[in-house]
Amino acid sequence: MNDREGAIEQVIELRLPSRLGYERIAMDTAAALARRMGFPAERIDALRTAIGEAVTNAIEHGNQADAAMKVVVVLMVRPDELIISVADQGRQALDPARTHIQPRITDAFQRADKGGWGIWLMRELMDEVEFTLAPGGGNQVRMVVHLERPST
Amino acid sequence: MQLTIPSILGYEVIARDAVASLAKRFGLAPERIEDIKTALCEACTNAIEHGNHADPQRKVRVVCTIDEQHLIIEVCDEGTDPPVLPKKPVEWPICPYTSFRGRGLMLMAALADEVTVVPDALTGTCVRLIFYRHPTNVVVDVS
Amino acid sequence: MLEDELTVNIRQRDGVAVIDLIGDVTTFAEEKINNAYRQVTARGERFILFNFRQNDYINSAGIAILIGIVTEVNQNGQRLAVSGLSPHFQKIFRMVGLAQYAEIYQTEDEAISAFRRLNTLE
């Protein structure tokens, strides 16, 4: 996993069935990769949580928990960053307004639905978050974690 | 579930952790999971080094299917040089000059309940490893 | 076939209802956590401790469940604390605002001591 080995970026792709529980595998895979890249523990935990939310959303909302549909996770290793993209096959398009919610716990106390924290958590934990359309149609979220190297 | 990694040594560890995560989620016993991790590492290393000649542009594909009875793992490379697998039960030779690669393949064959080589849908080679949830008579001849 | 992700235990310790949450806290945890809370509330418990064990996964659905519990704790005049969370999930609790309504302790012992002091004050 060093620059000598060919590509500037190295790509790992994971295809998962749309069943809750499978997000754990994406989380563990990304964490293993982040560990190898030398990310500090705190960033690895943040990444695990963010990717868990992204894949859960893809399973539950994008793919409507249809196990036959796939969630595609692409992990791109670059010298100074890890880029994660999570794509569903787009049964249900993501309302762009939902991607900018700032939930508040005091509001949640008043509502029956206590949720809506997932996307907000992703934005809080990752260095960059961008929602787009997947190449094959479907929702895609692209997240970036920067690898801070100590200056030599 | 399907995972694709570049043919660069070191990435077999990522595949290992992904498959271990799957096995753990599906309630396989810890000792079985250790067997799976080791066998998978050997299969991926073999695919990277020998199947794909460590060409970073080439991919190793790991496909997992899991059900009540087993976990089936296929490790596929883009090479046309399928490995020669030892038959089960694996006989460990006393001779110390067995190649490093040979020992890796023997380990893989010894740990999995079934091992076969299958041709890939595209051009390439797959090693299929099957792990039973509840192994019955697993005979390993360690003479 | 996916493993059942959460086991819940209810114990009594020094006048505190300790609810052990062992494993993952996700959408699948909802019934178990709500049942445990209702059970201890039905017998009039005022002090409740959620003691997390073997936990490395709490997702936003789990957060929503805990916010639901806190809503009822506030309404019922109970006191809720949590222990056993990893530093990462303590941070998440603070970010979300849960820390203002459920005191965070590193260990069960610390939480019990704190409840004891509270009990003598009130």
Automatic annotation (TrEMBL), chain A:
Q: Please cite one Gene Ontology biological process associated with this protein.
A: negative regulation of DNA-templated transcription
Q: Does the keyword Ribonucleoprotein apply?
A: no
**Segments traversing the membrane:** none
The record's Pfam families line, in alphabetical order, gives: HATPase_c_2
PANTHER family with a match to the protein in the record? ANTI-SIGMA-F FACTOR RSBW, ANTI-SIGMA-F FACTOR RSBW-RELATED
Q: Does the keyword Kinase apply?
A: yes
> What is the organism lineage in this UniProt record?
Bacteria, Bacillati, Chloroflexota, Chloroflexia, Chloroflexales
Taxonomic superkingdom: Bacteria
* Domain (Histidine kinase/HSP90-like ATPase) ranges: 17-144
Report keywords, A-Z.
ATP-binding, Kinase, Nucleotide-binding, Serine/threonine-protein kinase, Transferase
What's this protein's name? ATP-binding region ATPase domain protein
| Any one GO molecular-function label of the UniProt entry | sigma factor antagonist activity
Automatic annotation (TrEMBL), chain B:
| Molecular functions (GO terms) | ATP binding; protein serine/threonine kinase activity; sigma factor antagonist activity
The superkingdom listed in its UniProt entry is Bacteria
One record GO biological process: negative regulation of DNA-templated transcription
| Alphabetic keyword roster | ATP-binding, Kinase, Nucleotide-binding, Serine/threonine-protein kinase, Transferase
Using the record's annotation, list all stretches that form the Histidine kinase/HSP90-like ATPase domain. Answer: 15-130
SUPFAM superfamilies xrefs: ATPase domain of HSP90 chaperone/DNA topoisomerase II/histidine kinase (SSF55874)
Pfam families the record matches: HATPase_c_2
Q: Which CDD domains does the entry mention? A: HATPase_RsbW-like (cd16936)
Give the protein name, as stated in the record.
ATP-binding region ATPase domain protein
What organism is listed for this UniProt entry?
Answer: Chloroflexus aurantiacus (strain ATCC 29366 / DSM 635 / J-10-fl)
From TrEMBL, chain C:
STAS domain sequence ranges: 6-115
Q: Output the Gene Ontology terms for molecular function.
A: anti-sigma factor antagonist activity
Gene3D superfamilies registered for this protein in UniProt: STAS domain
> Which NCBIfam families did the record assign?
ant_ant_sig (TIGR00377)
Give the protein family. Belongs to the anti-sigma-factor antagonist family.
By its UniProt entry, which PANTHER family does this protein fall under? ANTI-SIGMA FACTOR ANTAGONIST, ANTI-SIGMA FACTOR ANTAGONIST TM_1081-RELATED-RELATED
- Report what the protein is called: Anti-sigma factor antagonist
